[in-house]
Amino acid sequence: MQDTNVIELKHICKSFPGIKANDDISLDLKKGEIHALLGENGAGKSTLMSVLFGMYEPDSGQIFVNGKEEKIKNPNDATRLGIGMVHQHFMLVGCYTALQNIILGYEPATKFFGFLKPKDVRQSLLDLCKKYKFEVNLDEKIDDMPVGEQQKVEILKMLYRKNDILIFDEPTAVLTPQEIDDLMISMKELAKEGKSILFISHKLNEIMEVADRVTVLRKGKCLGTLDVKSTDPQHLSRLMVGRDVQLVVSKKEAKPGEDVLTVDKLCVYSAEKKREVVHDVSFSVRKGEIVCVAGIEGNGQSELVYALAGLEKVRSGSIILHNLDTYRYRRLDKNGVEKPVSGFNRIASDNIDHVRRVSREAIKCFFINSYRHCVSLFNKKKPFVPYVKKQYFSPKPESAIYWKETAQRDAILRHNAREKLKAKLHKDYQPNFVGADWKGDQSLRYVNAHLEEMTIRDRSIGGISHIPEDRQKYGLALDFSLKDNLVLQRYFERKFQTLGFTNDRAKSEYANELIKRYDIRSSLGGSTTVRSMSGGNQQKAIIARELDRNTPLLIAVQPTRGLDVGAIEFIHKEIVKQRDAGSGILLVSLELEEVMNLSDRILVMFKGEIVAELDPKKTTVQEIGLYMSGAKRMDLKTHKDIPLSEEGGKAHA
Is the pLDDT of residue 375 over 60? Predict the structure, then answer.
């Protein structure tokens, strides 16, 4: 690291409607230095770097590059000055390949006629991948890539342009622990080569490992710049959020109850990857426990969650949500009081759908059994094994309850009408009214629901909350307001409607309550467009929406991705509170520290299969890593390790 300043930001100010994102911030970056930028969600880190990269123009202040004042009006100006940026939210074209995205805007072309020559840069990109240990298929489309691989494409795009000043805006948020270690090594190598790096991160251990200096921001203001060697994580976290933060999760011993979710021999086929990505997976989640699925990204965890949430079709196997309360499908008035099941048309529709499902299964059973019977007649080595029909229930079984309750209610009303008439005719007659405490039939209220045949909305109403892996693709409607996003799962409820129209006042009151409770920071409150919010606050909005529903099952994929230590502490406490209230939690995380601290039981996935079931109190991070890499495998019935030679012999046989 040299003493020469390659970047100097002096008194930068930037405001948006309702909020001052950067308030008189000054910062300098030396040649060959890794300078970390630390702050809580919404502190103004990404805004400051966007000003430097030309995405925004500052309201006031000066920018010096290599000692010369520059006016950076757009990213092209920044690139011309040797500044490159890896954005927190990817700036990639989904329908283009990785190679096309990397060279976009800087395409190699012939001198005459300008014909493109993408093959000329392929080898240089392959060399970069090899040098920095990036496994990227240059011919694969961005839409078909996992988020971790898309992040690597962003980094390659910057390295291809040979920028000397590199801005990394939370580059490790979507990477696996192994990929993070490789990136840290790569950043140190880049610094040794003379490149200067501005590194935004919420992860204190990464900053302590790789950075030379750190600047702390809070609520748009700079609290100072520190030498990393002279500070510690606790001090940095106190500066960042203004209080002491508990970095280790504190929770009581779990008291698991009965099963809330059972997955049996589940297989999922991916149309994108054109292969089966989940093979014969079986497990259960009980009430009052946190089950964590650990594994290196791309080993079937995403597809498993997609199948549970209804985003991916199930090829075979079953997913059962136990004791689903069918009254959740009934309409309530604005005060939460149950209303009678609505209308004959809806009931008829429910029953018709149920009949169709049962009919399809009967036809499927007939043809499969006929085929198997014919095969057994001509091939004695394949005995006839009958296909057993699945037993489906109607996703809205209140249809059956409705007819039974209607008959009972009518009988009560007829009886009371007769008693009332007798009292009118005979003055001395004491009427015997019945049914004052009648609550209807409860025998069909709780059922075991087969989720694989239910729609996404029916699963959601039935009792599943889902915090998705990709917040922008699956979790939010980016061009909707914050309040609209917070009621996405509930906008059709009576309390958010008036005469069939959405009640904006009710939405605003509900959104303001969640914004205050979960500290969601935005410029215009509930009216803020979600696209304009920081990534951490977008994540908070999803978590607030899903946790507030108090469902029996919560599926959380990377719930703390992109959050600061204060927000992580709060979210962990909320998840533990959900567990203690009796909900079952299925957690998918790439952070082994989070896995060890938060889970009550750990399932390890490798190549689409569950290869181990571990107790976090009796295992280590190193042992989990061996299972994640395929170096070890467990017999899930005996919980004993299978020798690799024996496993290989079985597979060969």
Answer: yes
